[in-house]
Write a structure and sequence with these properties.
heterodimer; A: D-Maltodextrin-Binding Protein, domain 2; D-Maltodextrin-Binding Protein, domain 2; 2 domains; 12 helices; 10 strands; B: mainly alpha; Tripartite-type tricarboxylate transporter receptor subunit TctC (chain A); Bug_dom1 (chain A)
């Protein structure tokens, strides 16, 4: 009874309070329904693992009065998820865990009518680096051997990754052109499937995120050769970066949370506070470290500017891919 | 021997008072979630995941696995009593479960489903316990060509069935394939078949939407039309003695389907990307194909209920295998369980069996206990479900309609799907009047989206050379068998034609 009354009061006062600072309102707005926690990828991949970890932290500290309900929408390189947010009838209860396909998919499919600047920035939880992996049984342990092997196969060297035009294909395309390699690229619906098919030797190499390959790396099934990060990663001190080898390229996958277009300011403030709390927990900080992710905390305004620069960067990269 | 002692200690973990209580609650909750159209084990596990923070991790996963089990049992209930699939995994159960119910044999169908589920689950548990690590490498050896070959085999079991009208079956399959292709193409990321530029089609047509349309609305219309000039089905009675008699009949007439479903279910379940829904459909097809009386299928044979029910339980245990041994989910539900394990601070992956042995074996032990609990609870509730059927159809029909619409909405929370359900329902009714089999269309919309990407991935692997399906050691034999099955009816048809020529 008291809850209904409070909701009613909050709603009726919302108009009066329109001029009060947002922070004060953030305390008042609370989700009234389970939160649709959309994931831009299929189950098992990097984005999926992160979403579920975030959900777990929120549950452990009881940070939300309504649960975050994960909802995998991996179709069409993330287009399915973007459309889901664009068309939602309840923007205040719909948030999305994004990858870089947040930038690339609207670029590649202009007909979807998605303008990411209409989305609501919530939190940048970190960025995920890429590593080049091969199977242990290939006998390859260095980049030189890899290049030699791939060249010797005249285009029949098979690499797996996520959908065409998505992160993995961008990284692989850049590497292939930098080393003058010809590879066959097999697109999968998510990083989890890619990791599995490298372990099963259905493909010869991948550029999984460390979190996706972690299980098979620890069991010794896959071997890291090259990192696409700016500096060597603490978790992989012996793996050289592409920069060290003389190519000016690094690439990260963003792990950001965004709200649906049309989300009210009150709701946006609520989620921003929520994800700041999650970000600052010991668990999330430990997760960043164990999964070799880098922190890149930004406030809402910085995120919007980051989106702009990322869209331009990806426009250039995709043009290179197609050209 | 070491495995047996590990299993024994695992069962002791599962039998601890708290865990046993969790199993009983989980199975009961799962039973009802599974019985609700639209809500399946995926939703149940996702919704109840947060509750598990109140108990230790081993108890939590035991609880969720119990829900998973219960839902597999429960899915059959509305498939049989109302003709609406309770969950995608129970669609194949409607094929014969519903006709049995219409003949007044709902209790037989429900008992068969419960017993077959139990056997399927138990067979899978034993295989799992004994061979988990070996089977993990089998799962990994299935790449895109192998999975495509398997899908081809699944289609073949539906085409190659004598008795049915083959051109109509093929048309039905094509219809399902086309519907399955709507939405985003996985390989190129481009949208396809977005009819009239309606954005709803971009998300694809959900399998459950078609199944609820065909079996919920379509079946309701069909029954209304049939019962105009026909007496209503005999009201089923339920007594303890009747149930024993049903159990005996279920054993006698359903053991074949159970055996087939148990084995196929497990192996399809451990494969990546498959899960319990394809497993149950494939088992139904194979059971029908191997049967001496294939014409009974679809008209109400216990074997046709037993095969998919044994398979979906067997597959749900099977899909735990890649999850526990490799950290890769074998079905949507296990993907959520996997998330749960991360939440509880466990690292899924190849090392879980070694590093968290007590957790893993406690879970495996709980499979056995959950299975027994689910059987008992399910049997105990059967009279309640039968009672529902005693309502006159004038009350049942609106109820089916409401459940179909509510269930369809619950799954995706999208009004667009409701319109699709209604359209599919009416279309299904018309097609059925014209004698088109609809099960193949339902099969195709499940298997098409698995088959198509794997076909294209395979051809990318081989630079476009289709011989990849014949030269690989596992894919080769499967492809050959599938092709033989597809062309067998054609050969028979030709032979018959030649004989006819001779006699004239």
């Amino acid at each position: 009874m008291s809850i209904t009354k409070r909701v009613f009061l909050t709603m009726s006062c919302a108009g009066l309070l329109a001029t009060t600072p947002m922070a004060a309102l953030a305390q008042d707005w609370q989700p009234r329904r389970p939160i649709d926690f959309v994931i831009m990828a299929g189950p098992g991949g990097g984005a999926d693992q992160i979403a579920r970890f975030i959900q777990s932290v929120a549950e452990r500290y009881d940070l939300t009065n309504r649960p975050l309900v994960p909802n995998n929408q991996g179709g069409g390189s993330g287009a399915e998820a973007l459309l889901h947010l664009n068309n939602t009838s309840d923007p205040d209860h719909t948030i999305l865990v994004t990858l870089n396909s947040f930038f690339t998919t609207p670029l590649r499919q202009a007909n979807l009518g998605i303008d990411i600047q209409t989305f609501t920035p919530i939190a940048m939880m970190g960025v995920d680096p890429f590593i080049l992996w091969v199977h242990r049984d290939s006998g390859i342990t260095t980049m030189d051997q890899f290049v030699e092997q791939a060249r010797s196969m005249n285009g029949e060297y098979v690499m797996g990754g996520t959908g065409t035009g998505q992160e993995d294909s961008i990284v692989i395309a850049f590497m292939a052109s930098a080393y003058d390699l010809e590879v066959t690229y097999i697109p999968y619906d998510g990083g989890g499937a890619v990791a599995r098919d490298l372990a099963g030797q259905q493909v010869m190499a991948t550029v999984n995120n460390p979190s996706e390959a972690k299980g098979f790396f620890e069991s010794g099934d896959v071997v890291p050769l090259l990192a696409f990060s700016d500096e060597r990663m603490p978790g992989f001190p012996d793996v050289p970066t592409l920069r060290e080898l003389g190519h000016d390229f690094s690439y990260y996958n963003q792990r950001a949370v965004v709200g649906a277009p049309g989300m009210s300011d009150e709701a946006a403030a609520y989620y921003q506070t929520l994800f700041t709390q999650i970000y600052e927990t010991e668990e999330w900080q430990a997760y960043l470290e164990s999964e070799s992710m880098s922190p890149l905390w930004m406030d809402a305004e910085e995120q919007r500017r980051y989106w702009e620069t990322q869209v331009e960067t990806h426009r250039a990269l995709l043009a290179q891919l197609d050209g | 021997m070491e495995i047996l002692s590990l299993l024994g200690s695992g069962m002791l973990v599962a039998l601890q008072p708290l865990n046993l209580l969790l199993i009983l609650i989980g199975v009961t909750v799962g039973l009802f979630i599974g019985a609700m159209p639209g809500l399946g084990s995926v939703n149940g596990v996702a919704i109840l995941l947060p509750i598990t923070f109140l108990v230790p991790p081993s108890g939590a996963i035991i609880f969720l696995a119990a829900i998973y089990y219960g839902a597999m049992y429960g899915g059959a209930i509305s498939s049989i009593t109302l003709g609406i699939p309770g969950a995608s995994t129970a669609v194949a159960t409607t094929f014969d479960g519903r006709p049995l119910a219409r003949q007044g044999r709902a209790s037989l169908a429900l008992v068969t489903a419960a017993l077959a589920s139990f056997v399927g689950g138990t067979v899978a548990n034993v295989i799992f316990t004994a061979f988990a690590p070996v089977l993990a490498s089998v799962a990994l050896s299935f790449g895109p060509p192998e999975i495509f070959a398997l899908m081809l085999l699944a289609f073949a079991t539906f085409v190659g069935l004598g008795g049915d009208d083959i051109p109509k079956t093929i048309l039905s399959i094509c219809l399902g394939l086309v519907l399955g292709a709507v939405g985003f193409d996985q390989i190129s990321g481009a949208p396809r078949l977005v009819l009239f530029d309606i954005t709803g089609f971009l998300q694809g047509i959900g399998f459950l939407v078609l199944a609820i349309g065909v079996y919920g609305i379509g079946e309701m219309l069909w029954t209304i039309e049939q019962s105009r000039d026909e007496a209503e089905s005999t009201p089923p009675k339920m007594t303890a003695r009747g149930m024993v008699a049903d159990a005996a009949e279920a054993t006698r007439r359903g053991w074949r389907g159970t055996a087939i479903g148990s084995c196929i279910g497990f192996f399809v379940g451990i494969l990546p990307a498959a899960g319990a829904t394809p497993a149950s459909l494939m088992s139904y097809g194979v059971a029908k194909m191997m049967s001496r009386n294939p014409q009974d299928y679809g008209r109400g044979t216990p074997d046709g209920v037993a095969a998919p029910e044994a398979a979906n339980n067997s597959a749900s245990t099977g899909s735990m295998l890649p999850m526990l041994t490799l950290g890769i989910p074998g079905s949507p539900t296990t993907a959520i369980l996997l998330g749960g394990m991360v939440i509880w601070g466990l690292t899924p992956g190849p090392r879980l069996f070694i590093e968290e042995s007590e957790f893993v074996w406690g879970l495996i032990g709980s499979f056995y206990i959950s299975n027994i609990a689910a059987l008992i609870i399910n049997l105990a509730f059967i009279p309640v479900f039968i009672w529902m059927l005693r309502m006159p159809f004038t009350i049942l029909a609106p109820m089916i309609f409401v459940l179909s619409v509510a269930g369809g909405y619950a799954a995706t929370r999208d009004m667009f799907d409701i319109w699709l359900i209604l359209i599919f329902g009416i279309a299904a009714f018309v097609l059925r009047r014209l004698d088109y089999p609809l099960a193949p269309a339902v099969l195709a919309i499940v298997l098409g989206p698995i088959a198509e990407p794997t076909l294209r991935q395979s051809l990318l692997l081989s630079q476009g050379d289709p011989s990849i399906f014949f030269t690989r050691p596992v894919a080769g034999p499967i492809t050959v068998i599938a092709l033989i099955l597809i062309f067998l009816p054609l050969v028979k048809l030709l032979q018959r034609g030649r004989k006819a020529d001779k006699t004239t």
